[in-house]
Amino acid sequence: MSDLEAEGTDAYRLSTITDGWVERFGHDVLISFKNQAARERLTTEYFLWAEAMGFNTQRMFERLLPKRNEERKAPKLILGDSNTGSRSVVMERGLRFEIDFSGGYSVGLFIDQRENRSFIRTSAPKRMLNCFAYTCSFSVAAAIAGGNTVSVDLSQKSLERGRANFVLNNLPATGHHFIADDVFEVFPRLSRKGEKFDLIVLDPPTFSRSHRGKTFQIESDFESLVMAALEVADRDCRILLSTNCAALDGRALEVMARYCLKTSRRAGSFHAEPRPVEFPPNSGASTTWLTLR
């Protein structure tokens, strides 16, 4: 049994190479690859591991990692019963999350954010704003620690999956809000109402387009996002800065955030939570925490 299984984590990355990786979600496995050579290598490595560990694979899915976002497709079943539903539930340190292999390119849980979710639970925020919330895993982490949450995402479908995650964890509906809208439209409304938060999550996609046609490009718009977040950040607020953009790392995020602090005449310190143990350097999301003071 691996250390991750021993601590109650059944969603984690098993293998990573330059051109792909293997992830395990309970008894389901997802192989992500950039080319056929990577696919063959990862598949071979996985079956050797499964045989050695005596692991029973119920289903295996695969997905191509395309160069352009518009080419992304949902994972394809390559092993297992096609009549079995596409959804399953996995556990991470006592939290339950629904996984859906037919729900789109991403299955519902970014396992590289495990330590940041744990940090949120430890921080026990009173009010958390989760921007680009997707299926609301950060919100679940805050809510389980007793905090009230506001989850914002362009996709109503993603937020409905987030609500389902709240139900899975027996969390009440009161004190939690789910807003299907553009984050940049929501920030001014919150500010006008005098809303303040002691924890804010900024984990935007590299590129997105709102229903009104407005685009977001992280390399050019991230500073504007941080500035908007500072308007609703309480005095000792913690802000998670995160990106999967290959052109930005944790240091770049910190540099941009320091510029925003200077512009807004605020002060803060930075730290990074450790990368999940199964993620090698330069893999997974780049993240850093800003703590205001």
Task: Please give a structural write-up.
- The protein has helices at residues 3-6, 36-53, 114-123, 137-144, 156-168, 183-192, 218-230, 250-264; strands spanning 11-17, 20-25, 28-33, 59-64, 76-79, 87-92, 95-100, 127-131, 148-153, 176-180, 197-202, 207-209, 215-217, 233-243, 268-271, 286-292.
- The strands form 4 sheets. A 7-stranded mixed sheet has the order 10-9-8-11-14-16-15, with helices on both faces.
- The chain folds into 2 domains: 3-100, Transcription Regulator spoIIAA (2-Layer Sandwich); 111-292, 3-Layer(aba) Sandwich (Rossmann fold), CATH 3.40.50.150.
- The protein has 293 residues and is of the alpha/beta class.
Topology at a glance:
Layout: H1 3-6, E1 11-17, E2 20-25, E3 28-33, H2 36-53, E4 59-64, E5 76-79, E6 87-92, E7 95-100, H3 114-123, E8 127-131, H4 137-144, E9 148-153, H5 156-168, E10 176-180, H6 183-192, E11 197-202, E12 207-209, E13 215-217, H7 218-230, E14 233-243, H8 250-264, E15 268-271, E16 286-292
Parallel strand pairs: 3-4, 8-9, 8-11, 9-10, 11-14
Antiparallel strand pairs: 1-2, 2-3, 4-5, 6-7, 12-13, 14-16, 15-16
Helix pairs in contact: 3-4, 7-8
Query: Which consecutive residue ranges, at least 5 long each, have pLDDT under 50?
Result: none
Question: Helicity range of the residues?
Answer: 25-40%
Task: Look at the structure and name the CATH superfamily of the largest domain.
Answer: Vaccinia Virus protein VP39
Number of helices: 8
Q: Kindly report how far apart the N and C termini lie.
A: 43 Å
CATH class of the largest domain: Alpha Beta
| Widest sheet: strand ordering | 10-9-8-11-14-16-15
Largest sheet: 7 strands, mixed
In terms of DSSP E residues, the strand content is 25-35%
Radius of gyration: 19 Å
- What's the architecture of the largest domain in CATH terms? 3-Layer(aba) Sandwich
Q: How much is the average pLDDT?
A: 94
The CATH topology of the largest domain comes to Rossmann fold
Q: Which structural category fits the helices and strands? A: alpha/beta
The total domain count is 2
One letter per element, helices H and strands E, the order comes to HEEEHEEEEHEHEHEHEEEHEHEE
The shape is: globular
Total beta strands:
16
